[in-house]
Amino acid sequence: MTYKQIKWMILFVPTLIVGLWEYVRHQFLMPYISMDLGNWLTPVLVYLVSVTLLNQLFSQLEKIQQELQVERAQKAALEAREQLAKELHDGIAQSLFLLSVKVDRLKFTPDQESHEEAVYAVRKTVHEVNRYVRQAIASLRYAATTQHEAAILETLEDKVKQIANEVLTPMEIAWTLPDDAMSPREKVEILACIREAVVNIQKHARATKGWIAAEGNEKAWKVSIRDNGKGFQPDQIDAKDSFGLNIMKTRAEEMSWQLRIFNQNELTTLEIRKRGEEA
């Protein structure tokens, strides 16, 4: 029996029982049962129905409620695990990879000043990893409008340039999208997607050059990341081991964005578009 059926039975069974009793009493039992006795028997009958039939219905209702609470707890646990995996990937895994890239750069820093700058960059990344770990432990929830607003006080273009400078692959920036065209939540999500795309170019594409471009307005915009690497296979985005691509796809869906990855003119393009008027 479903939750809705039990609820309606609890509401209507006492009414139907009392109505049937009153009809039988007035039609057939008046010669045998006085009016006063009948009036006393009516609440007794309602009580007996309540402690028998309705008590069972309430027990079933409580059982369904407990099952729903268990399902909600399991769902919350799964969502927390997924959120933790996203936080670990976006923060710790990417930062560790960038740390390895910066360590490799130390081999190509002949002068002392550049060497010290590279060491400082490595130390900064280590502190960022530490911060990501503490943040993941403290809270698994992704509060884009609170925890991350402080990270976007600089312009969006400045943050994109910082991301581009973190990898060895040269990246050319053409950013014409106004900084106020995105909400704080949108900025956080698009920066995470751009970081993932740039890291993938460094890790997998074997590219010698990349391009990041953005154009549009607050109603509709387009961000594209291109590279001249080995190309993209369409089935990669649905592969189980393409964790970063799956996260980008999920982010785009949550923000109602359109995400496309395609090969054109010997370039691989990842395009994220917010629909409205054409950007």
From TrEMBL:
Catalysis performed (reactions): ATP + protein L-histidine = ADP + protein N-phospho-L-histidine
Cleaved signal peptide residues: none
Highest taxon of source: Bacteria
Gene Ontology cellular-component annotations: membrane
Transmembrane parts of this sequence: 6-25, 37-58
GO MF assignments: ATP binding; phosphorelay sensor kinase activity; protein dimerization activity
Pfam families: HATPase_c, HisKA_3
InterPro entries linked: HATPase_C_sf, HATPase_dom, Sensor_HK_TwoCompSys, Sig_transdc_His_kin_sub3_dim/P
Keywords, in A-Z order: ATP-binding, Coiled coil, Kinase, Membrane, Nucleotide-binding, Phosphoprotein, Transferase, Transmembrane, Transmembrane helix, Two-component regulatory system
EC assignment: 2.7.13.3
Translocase recorded as keyword: no
Any coiled-coil regions, as ranges: 54-90
Annotated ranges, domain Histidine kinase/HSP90-like ATPase: 192-261
Residue stretches making up the Signal transduction histidine kinase subgroup 3 dimerisation and phosphoacceptor domain: 81-141
Protein name per Swiss-Prot or TrEMBL: histidine kinase
Source species: Paenibacillus apis
